């Protein structure tokens, strides 16, 4: 057992309102400069949709992440042999058109144009060339466009779904969408780190944050290909790769990352999770149907004496262990079993988890011609335009799960490597809390039904109240449990940085710490 600590995150998709405040906060702090105009370390996508860069989830195009090879794993589009063959020409890397050509407007034309009979306009100009351009794409170009053929219908997560299932999602009466905010996942098995020929990428030993040493980076851009989430970017001005740094200067000062601090919907949670590094290869090499369960099993109980002893043996401070014990992310992911990783099939073991959206229930719509026909469908039936029946009634406690506007298969492709049971389990738990709180606050649901829902989800009333409080009423310090930074870690980094700066090391106390700067 080799226990290490990792800063982890949970995003609650039912709470995201798609305001993009997080994206703007990150842009203003980190990527509002030359060469980084097109970068959005934090972006918010509309699902269904193709995302940013377009179709980033389709690794048949980009060759990101790891693949199972004879019981082991290897990088899909990078690595020693593949990287050497493609080192001067990489056909699997997104180009600027896959992101978008960054632009601004020539606002001075509105002020300085001479008097004329025509209204002056501010032409769009490229931030790369400075020349006028026709805008064809943006970082959130498909925002709210749930039904469009160009974006929503080209979503890679429709894989494995029948044409009828896909088209059912775009019927007007059941059309729905949700927002998917994304940042770097700071994975336990990061493909970007493994792909870098220069050894510029590294994973910090004290908190697991993945960073790029700008002095060592030689712009091979293998990390751009290897990251299946496309969260490593190339700065065309500096000739270096860049990525989300999880605002580690803020974390070290006890402050939440900018995107999380600014989140209007309060969907974001951050905390420490302890994991067993000895099992990374075993978990990453698991069969696809076992990926989720094994991913959950590598995350360790911070109250277990053996786990605590191993953590201390690795130099993890008592304050970090305590932060893991009160971590909101551990509660969502392990204790309550509500959150899932994004595209576990990429095998990078991401440490950003999502609570799936409990989307509106899909009512059945039937044509009727009179009240007698409508009465056959139950007392909750409602007549619409005297000809259509809108029926939301169900005799089963979990009947509405299967009627959700998003097919379980779609959510499973997104969040559970295709395992629909994992999605159903999380949605049942979310609905159980909703039913319980409805009984407790409104009282129009029988207490027996509320208890039945909790028992079916494996929850107690106390657990349901805790979930409600952390989801709806949490204070800032409840959502962000940030362990204290330790000066001795910084001193070790300074002492050991130098001769070994360009090496590739993954040791916890020596190699990784030596490469901290």
Describe how the helices and strands are arranged.
Layout: E1 3-12, H1 21-30, E2 43-47, H2 59-62, E3 66-69, E4 72-75, H3 80-85, H4 96-99, E5 103-105, H5 108-112, E6 124-126, H6 163-168, E7 178-182, H7 191-195, E8 201-203, E9 210-212, H8 222-226, E10 232-235, E11 240-243, H9 248-252, H10 258-261, E12 268-276, H11 280-284, H12 291-297, H13 305-313, H14 318-325, H15 328-335, E13 340-341, E14 352-355, E15 364-367, H16 371-375, E16 382-384, E17 388-391, H17 408-415, H18 420-441, H19 447-457, H20 461-472, H21 476-479, H22 487-496, H23 511-514
Parallel strand pairs: 1-14
Antiparallel strand pairs: 1-12, 2-7, 3-4, 5-6, 8-9, 10-11, 13-14, 15-17, 16-17
Helix pairs in contact: 17-18, 18-19, 18-20
Bin the strand percentage: 5-15%
Largest sheet: 4 strands, mixed
Strand arrangement in the largest pleated sheet: 12-1-14-13
Distance between the termini: 28 Å
As residue ranges, the low-confidence spans are: 379-394, 496-517
Count of β-strands: 17
